[in-house]
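Example record for the data management plan.
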Amino acid sequence: MKPVARSHNKVGSSRAFWLKQLHQWHWISAALCLVGMLLFAVTGFTLNHAGQIEAKAQTVHRTAQLPATLLKAVAGDDERKGVSVPAMVADWIGAQLDIDVAGRAADWSSDEIYVSMPRPGGDAWLSIDRESGKVEAERSTRGVIAYLNDLHKGRHAGAAWGWFIDVFALACVIFSVTGLLLLKMHAAQRGATWPLVAFGLLLPLVLALIFIH
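Corresponding structural encoding:
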């Protein structure tokens, strides 16, 4: 009987080890993606009902006039793509219009310089007339919900947000896989485990096959 007892002890210690590991990875991944999951769940709902949730854009239009000393820096009729405006012009625009165009890609045509500045929940652009020096800028916002919806899609949110989404997605995968393994280890004491898992798998599959064409 002693070898059998040792075998049971070995299995029990192995199970305890994996349970501890899975619980640890499960709660760590849950902590990492908790706020992100709430954000993406709420914005998933708002995106699904975007037609019923109105987003009225608020637009601000501003103009200014480049001084003659700076007009020389943008004058000409050459065409360029993705070339930022000169630093001294960008500094002047920042001081006069409170718009940061430093280092941003701009399209230079024969008559104007155009800078597009899309962002989550809104849009913005700036143009400089290369002959007269007239500067026009417009900024629009569509509200908090539109901002959060664009974050959900990663729209114009920048590289840092893109990295966050990647890390968040990995944390969600770990959370889901460790949760599935914990379900497996506790399934013997919880008879409804696999029927519920199967239902969670079949429901979206059936809906997709029947109602999505």
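Summary line stored alongside the record: The mean pLDDT is 91.
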